Amino acid sequence: MKSSTVIHLDGYQLSIEQVAAIARERLQIELAPEAMERVRLSRAMVEEMVSSQQVVYGITTGFGKFSDVVIPAEDVSQLQENLIMSHACGMGEPYPAEVVRAMMALRINALAKGYSGIREDTLLLLKEMCNRGVHPIIPQQGSLGASGDLAPLAHMVLVMLGKGEAEYQGSRMPGLDALHAAGLKPVRLEAKEGLALINGTQAMTALLCLAVTDAKILIENADVVAAMTVEALHGIPKAFDPQLHLVRPHPGQQESARKLLEHLAGSERTTAQGALRVQDAYSLRCVPQVHGATRDAWDYVYAAVTRECNSVTDNPILFSETGDVISGGNFHGQPMALAADFLAIAIAELANISERRTERLVNPQLSGLPGFLTEKGGLHSGFMITQYVAASIVSENKVLCHPASVDSIPSSANQEDHVSMGTTAARKLRTILSNSAKVLGIEYLAAAQAIEFGKGKLGAGTEQAYAKIRQAIPPLADDREMHLDMRKAEELIAGGFLVS
């Protein structure tokens, strides 16, 4: 359940929207009482195993290839600290604070389910770090996405030990200093706790939660921008007729067709079938089919990520109800890897078809409009190079769309002989989303400019979108620094819905 400023986590009901709110709006986290009771029960299991000297993976044994090495009871705490320090091997630029916060929220929720054996105080420290804005510095490179996101999550836990680095109130500092500045104290990990904190899919899932949120905005805005292009080119909205899409009943296709008609309602700039031409080019006529397929992909990914937000993904898993301790593979990131690759391809297709529509807008042989949307062609280049840029970015996306999930490199002396590369897939997805917002922004800019050369009332949705871009960017009369306009258009595309 969610209030205006607090999200209560119980391990079972965390939504993607709530993760995004914790990450970006800095909403506070509280733990449900029933979750804390489950945490206490699973912790009691761990303490019983240690006291009775049972041989259980990761509790009284080493890790990975060292799973057959039994650790004496007096060393189990040192084992957990060693695990964190040795596994904190990330490299590259750090994740933005919003990704780190999403990771922390997801890990807290997974631990709150009560199957991981963590102590209450350790879980509460992680919660308070998130609530007070102590954000560990977590490098982006280094996760194989099976055995979970070991390296990224180890960097998160370093700060809990008073080690590593963190960002606090805008400053980067040693982890211990950040804890002290926030009024917190480091923890000494006990049996199972290090493994409970780092064995999971929370880095890739955090990236996916934010990507799913951003992708929804792009999908909705792609429909209204496409509708603007339809008007600018006097397109034929009959191709969006509901009866056509009823006989090929993909839900996303039907929704995109409905949205296009909604955005074009009342427009005086579209044409009837056969008036100017019998059919439009595919980049106009097939918008529902292409955008709709992306909608269907988004629906699948949304459902998969929602399940992962409320899953137990560490190892071993403790079942206090039965007393079973089961070593398995819930940490394997393949479900998220495939979801990230699928959404990356789907979002890239929004950019692919958008660039083709931009070409139709700027090419006088295809548009009937002034070449490159300038009345002073020759002296002025107008929108000539904007299409070059869109083509370049679309090509970059095609390279990035190579699926990470089909790759695997064995690790831990071949004990971990198949891995997901899910975090790589999710990182690539984030780049593709940013790239696609740029390409859609270019089309948005060009469509608005093309509308300047026509007459007649715009549609109900396109009028709103046109007004929004004109509040930020005036029409192009003479050549100017186009990159400034393009960045503003990108910000409008990525920053929220163009139509209320």
From TrEMBL:
The modification 2,3-didehydroalanine (Ser) is found at residue 147. It comes from the Bacteria. It is found in: Cytoplasm. GO terms for biological process: L-histidine catabolic process to glutamate and formamide; L-histidine catabolic process to glutamate and formate. The keyword Transferase does not apply. There is a cross-link at residues 146-148 (5-imidazolinone (Ala-Gly)). It is an enzyme of class 4 (lyase). This is Histidine ammonia-lyase. It comes from Brevibacillus composti. The lineage of its organism: Bacteria, Bacillati, Bacillota, Bacilli, Bacillales.
